Give the backbone structure.
Amino acid sequence: MDPILSVSGLSKRYGETLAVDGISFAVAEREIVGLLGPNGAGKTTTINMLLGVLEPSGGEIRIEGIPLAAERSRALARTNFAAVYAPLPGNLTVLQNLRFFGLLYGVPHLRARIDELLEEFHLARFRDVKCGVLSSGEQTRASLAKAMLNRPRLLLLDEPTASLDPSVARDVRARLKGFVDRGSGAVLWTSHNMYEVEEVCDRVLFLSRGRILLEGDPRRLPAEHGRETLEELFVALAREPLALERERA
Amino acid sequence: MRWNRPAAIALRHFYLMRGSPARVLPIFAWVAVDIVLWGFITRYLNSMFGPKVDFVPLLLGAVLLWDFFSRVLHGVTTAFLEDVWSRNFLNLFATPLTVTEYVTGLVASSIVTSALGLAAMVALAGAAFGLSLFSYGAMLAPFLLVLLLFGIALGVVGSALVLRFGPASEWFIWPIPALLSPFAGVFYPVSTLPGWMRAVARLLPPSYVFEGMRGVVSGGTVAVAPLVWGALLAAAYVLLAGRLFARVHRHAVRTGLIARYSAETVS
C-alpha cells in the first residue's frame, strides 16, 4: 500500500542557498511524524513545498501516490493545513470562513460538517464573530477547524499549538491524535515544544541545514544518543549538527 | 473546472460586501457623482446649442459606458486585493483551487458588482437627465460586451502586476481608466488625435465602442466590422491577460513569493 505522503530527493535552492537538500521520507497511514529542527533548518520550506505553494528545485512529492507536480488539484484535495503564521481572513466570520474553504475543498454536506467542527473545536458561540477579533487561541482553533473540514488524508501542521494555553493545547493534541487513531489519515507536525512532540509523534525527523540528520521514535532517540531528554538532543543537534554527522560516519 | 471553487471566491466577495458599507458605497457613489456632474454639463451644453445636437446620449452616455468599463476593471482587482489585504494567499493557494478557477471567481464577482453599478447609473441618468441607453438600439449589447471584456482583461493584468510587484503597486491600478481615456476617444472622435495617439487608439477596444456610439447618436449607419474587430481584440486581451496571470503565479510559486507575500515583496 502507498504511504499517505512520499517525498523523495526533495530540494529547494534560492540562488546560492540550498534551503532543502535532497530529503526523502514517507508518512504512513495513522502515523504522526514530527518535523523538528532549529529556525532556518528548512521545515517551513518543506511544508510549503508539500502545500504546493512553493515549487521544488528537485525531487518528487506524492500524496496517496498522486504526484503533486503533475496533479496538483487532485493531490491537494486530500490535504489540509494549519499554521500559526496563516490565520484565516480576519474580515470574515468563523462560519463564513468555513463555508468559503468548505466550497474550495468541495466538502459534501457542508452545513452538517461545519456544525460538527464548530462543536468539536468549541467555536459554536463564535460562529458569527469575525476571525480578526478572536483571541489568538480562538483563531488557532478556527484554523484547525478549517484544516479538518475535508477530512484530509494528510494534515500538515506548522506549530499548531504555539499560541494556545496548556489546557487548550492538550485538548487540541487529543483531538488530533483522535483524528489519526480513528484511521482517517496521517499528520506531519512541526513544533518547538519537545514535550508535545514526545506525547504526540510516533516518529520524528530532525532537520538541520536542509538535511535530515536523525530519524526515529522520540521516546527512544535521546537515550540512543546519550541524552536525557528530547530537548537536550534537540539543543545538541541545533548547536553541533556536524558532530552528529561525524558520529554517524 | 470545478464550479464550486469560482463560486467560493464570488461568495467570499458577497460576504465582504454584505458586511461592509465601505465596500458597497464606492460601487454607487463615484459613478453617481460622475452622472450628476456630466448630467448638468450636458444640460448646459444643450441650452447653449439648442435642439440641433443632443449632448445627453453623446456625452452623458459616454460617461456612463466609460464608468461601466472602469467598474469592471476595478471590480476584478478589488476582489483580488481582498486576498492581498487579508494576507490570504497561503490559505487560498494551498487548496485545490486552480489559477483559472481563481480568476473566474474574481471575474464573476466583478460582473455582479459592475451590473449593480450599471443599473444604478442607468436609473439615475434616466430619472434625472432623461438618458435612455436603449437609444443606442441593438448596438447597446455589443458596446457593453466589448467594454466588459476589456475591463476584465485590464483587471486581470492589474492583479498580475500586484502579485508580481507587491501590494504597494496597487496604486498603478486605480488610474488606469484615466490614463486610457484620452486615447480611447471617449468624448471626441479618434480622428481628432495626432497620429501616434490614433495608433494607440486602434489597439484599444473601447475606441471602437465610442466611435460606434457617436455613429448611432448622429443617426448615421454604424460600421459593424470595426466593432467586431474591437470585440475580437478585447477577447484576445482577455486570453493574454489570463496567460500573464498564470505566468506571474507560476513565478510566485517558483520563487516562494506566494508563501511569503508581504507588504513590500518584490523578488
